[in-house]
Request: fold
Amino acid sequence: MCGRFTLTLSKDVIESSLGVYLNELEPSYNIAPTQSVLSIVQGNEEKRAGFMRWGLIPSWAKDKKIGSRMINARSETVDEKPSFKPLLSRRRCLIVADSFYEWDQHGEEKQPYRFSLKDEPVITFAGLWDRWQEEDKEIISCTILTTDANKEMNQFHHRMPVILDNEKREKWLDRSLTDHPSLKSLLTPLPNGALTYYPVAKDVNSPKNNHSELLNSL
Reply:
């Protein structure tokens, strides 16, 4: 799964790496569900970057609280679930990060680790988004797709977020691509050896903590 991540890269690095323009960007060292996340969608002519609420609220939902339970979606069944199936064809996005956290649990002890790509500064998670409206209030929200863990991640959890490389990013955002088998074929685990990781302080366990020292290795 993916329950916490970071985005600490500069505006310039993200713009040059992903071909988007950002109005502003503040670093975040402990992004948690229900918070705003930097996302990219394909517009009519160019990619557009903006912020969405993490935790999908389907357009048909009666209560926005459902979003806190829909931070992730299984890629294997994404075309079967009513909340996700219509979005797979028409509302796909990238969610931008530079690392994510996962926990190693032994008994009651949980040790957090920070994971990042070994050869790339920018991580793009495959995501889906939707627009929810209640009277005059609108919330645009998203979920992160997950897949089977690769070798590194499997030591900590049997699932991992779907991370798309340059080629897959373009296909995922291509609005002309709508058939589910082709889209699902993009949702695969990273190759073994693509991740690097190290333990960090347990301060990251609380989303109230959001400071640069969280990135320090133990």
In short: Helices lie at 11-18, 85-90, 151-154, 166-173, 180-184.
